Every structure is written in C-alpha cells, then in structure tokens.
Amino acid sequence: MLQETVQNTEGLTDGETTEKTLSIIELITTGGTAGIIIIVILFVLFVAAIYIYFERLLAIKEASKVDANFMNQIKDYVSDGKMDSAQNLCLQANSPVSRLISKGVSRIGKPLDDINKAIENAGRLEIYSLEKNVSVLATISGAAPMIGFLGTVIGMILSIFEIANSGGSIDIKTLADGLYTAMTTTVGGLIVGIVAYIAYNHLVVKTDKVVYKMEANSLEFLDLLNEPI
Fold it and tell me: Which residues cross the membrane (predicted)?
C-alpha cells in the first residue's frame, strides 16, 4: 500500500515538473510562409521607425540650439547699419532661426510686407526640413497594427482549414499552433504601432517648440524694423 502511494506521488511529481515552454521563434516559424513574411515586414517597420525617430530627434535638437545673445547682436548690427556683420553672424549660427533672420536682413530696404513674406517662405522650407520623414512614423503607427491583424486573420484561416480537413478529428495541437501564430502577429503589430505612435507625437512636440522659437525671433526682428529711427 505504501509502495503504491510512493509510486503515485512520484508520478504526480513528474507530471507537475513537465512544463510547456513557449518559444517565440517556434511560433513564428510554425506559422507558415505568410506568418514569417508578416513578422519580417513588422521587424523592418520597427527598425525604420527607430531609425527615423533618433535621426529626427538629433536633427531637431541641433536646430533648437540658439544663442541667447543672438538677437541682441542682430539688433546692434542692424541699428548700426552693419548688414554684412549681421549676415556673417547668421552664417556662423547656422540654425533655422538664423537662416530666417538672414533672409530678413537680405531684404532690408524693401517694404515690410516683402520682408515678412520672404521670412514666411523661408520658414515653410525650414519646417518642411524639420518634419522630413516624420509622416512616415505616422504611417507606420497606423499600418503596423493592421498588418498584424492581417496575420491574425491568416492564422485563423489556416486553423479553420486544418479543422475542415481533419475528417472529424480535431488536432488540438495544430489548432493551438495556428492560434498562437495569429496572436503573435497581432502582438507584434501592436508593439510596432505603439512605439511608432509615441515616437511620432514626441517629435511633433519637439518640432513645435523649434517652430515657436522661429516665430518668436522672426516677430522680434520685424518689430526691430518697425521701430522709429
């Protein structure tokens, strides 16, 4: 009797220690060609999103650097009629703000409306340069979850196909593999979409700050030209 109890306990222990491991690589590879292609596409989109984010972040950070004394120096040069010195200062600064001011300085002597339009046109070009490839992040944030959902639908179709061809006997393992693969593509798509969405909004906020600096300095320059001599 005692021997039987020991044997049952050993059997129970062996059963409890047997664990089902879940390998992401196995889930991807068992999903068939369609599942692998979708995962590869999502991975490429993820790498592209990360690259665009850090490339734009560094570019925007560099563009936001403006010397606190820059506009004071511009005011002094313009007031003294030293336009060449003002242009040289703008070239040395080499930032979106300095390029706008340089455009305005080059138009001094013309009507204020012409100067204002020249600055606005230069500002549009600078904003376009700052927002380069940022729209791609927005596209990735919307497309990635849909691509992942496409993988889910394909996985479900494959599972239903296996059930339809099972001849009445459903293989739970085959069905589970299909569902695992379907959910894996969905999770992958959501991860890529969320990362791209957060990165996009962060870049938009950073870009808006640079645009605000450009507008503030442009208005300050125009106010300088409006001051009575």
Answer: 34-54, 134-158, 178-200
Per-domain boundaries in the chain: 33-62+69-226
pTM value surpassing 0.85: no
Three-state secondary structure string covering the chain: CHHHHHHHHHHHHHHHHCCCCCCHHHHHHCCHHHHHHHHHHHHHHHHHHHHHHHHHHHHHHHHCCCCCCHHHHHHHHHHCCCHHHHHHHHHHHCCHHHHHHHHHHHCECECHHHHHHHHHHHHHHHHHHHCCCHHHHHHHHHHHHHHHHHHHHHHHHHHHHHHHCCCCCCCHHHHHHHHHHHHHHHHHHHHHHHHHHHHHHHHHHHHHHHHHHHHHHHHHHHHHHHCCC
Among 99, 76, 65, 78, CA closest to 206: 65
Token digits of residue 136: 């791609």
Residue 47 predicted with pLDDT over 90: yes
Residues facing residue 110 across a β-bridge? 108
Tally of CB atoms within 10 A around 188: 24
pLDDT tens sequence across 157-198: 777 777 777 665 666 666 666 677 777 888 889 999 999 999
Q: With 0-12 CB in 10 A as exposed, 13-18 as middle and 19+ as buried, what is 89? A: buried
- What span, in angstroms and rounded, lies between the C-alpha atoms of 93 and 90? 5
